[in-house]
Design goal:
Layout lengths: L2 H12 L2 E6 L5 E4 L2 E2 L10 H22 L8 H19 L3 H8 L3 H8 L3 H5 L1 H13 L4
Antiparallel strand pairs: 1-2, 2-3
Helix pairs in contact: 2-3, 3-7, 4-5, 5-7
Amino acid sequence: MAITDIISQLDRDEGTVLYAYPDDDGYWTIGTGHCIDKRRGCGITLAQSNSILNDDVTSVVANLNANLPWFSKLDVVRQGVLINVGFNVGVHGLLAFHNTLSYMQRGEWDEAASNLLQSAAAKELPARYGRLATQLITGTWQ
């Protein structure tokens, strides 16, 4: 039996669901029957986690490029701020940061940072957004 045969069979028998769901026994599962439920001793590997993270970052970057034409003109450190916030609140949520984005587009880093710190997200995660504000101002990774 070739590996493609068993994969086809498992895909047919398990089905593929692209979000977490409880299986027939109530254990959290994702993809093609992949158990992620800690109660059953399941999870994902570090390699799988890294792959998912890379895919997620790639998706955020693509969405930022599609929605903010000036994104690609920023230095990578300040792009990192937008990627981080987009990852945290979703790109749709980030796009609601109108004033912060306007300041960033104009390169007004102090104002952008100050405005970012006034957001609900910054109030919820002050350490994270404090680092991001410093990153905006300094242009260095925090």
